[in-house]
Amino acid sequence: MNPKPIDWHRLDEIIETHRHRKWSLIPLLQEVQETYGYIPPESIEPIAEALNMSAAEVQGVVTFYSGFSLKPKGRCVLKVCRGTACHVKGSRSILRHVKKELHLEEGETSEDYQFTLETVACLGACFLAPTMMVNRDYYGRLNPTKVSSVLGQYSKNKEDDGSA
Ligand code: FES
To answer: What CATH number is attached to the domain comprising 142?
Structure first.
C-alpha cells in the first residue's frame, strides 16, 4: 500500500504563506511535515525557489534536523524511550515487546503505513519511566500488557476510520 497521496495544491498554499522569507524555512518545513507526515522530496525544489535558496541548502537543513524525514511515516509514530531512566526501569524489554507486536525494527514503517517505530534518547518524562509516545500522546509506567493494550487501541482506530 502507498502512503496518502500528496495534495500538491495544499503544498502550494503552504509555500505561498512563506514566499521570499528565507528565515521562514524551518516553520515552512515543519508545516509541510505536519501536513504530510514527512517532507516529500519533490517539495524541496519549489520550497528552495520560493525562498530564493538552492535546493542543496534546503536539503541540507532537512537532513541536519532529525525531526524532519524525507521518507513517509506511518499514521502512528511510536517513539520508545531508551534513555537512562527508562533503561533502568526496563525499556529494553518494552522495545522488544513493541518490535514483536508490530513486526518492525527501529526506523521501520509497516507496509500499510499504520505504524512507524523509532527510539529516542529521552522523552522528557523520566518520572513516567519506562515511557513511549504515540504521535503526541505519552504512555508511561509501561509493562508488556499495557503496551499491547495501547497498540491495540491504535490498531482499532485504524479499523474504525475505515482505512484497514
Ligand atoms: S529517560 Fe525516558 S523519558 Fe527520560
So the answer is: 3.40.30.10
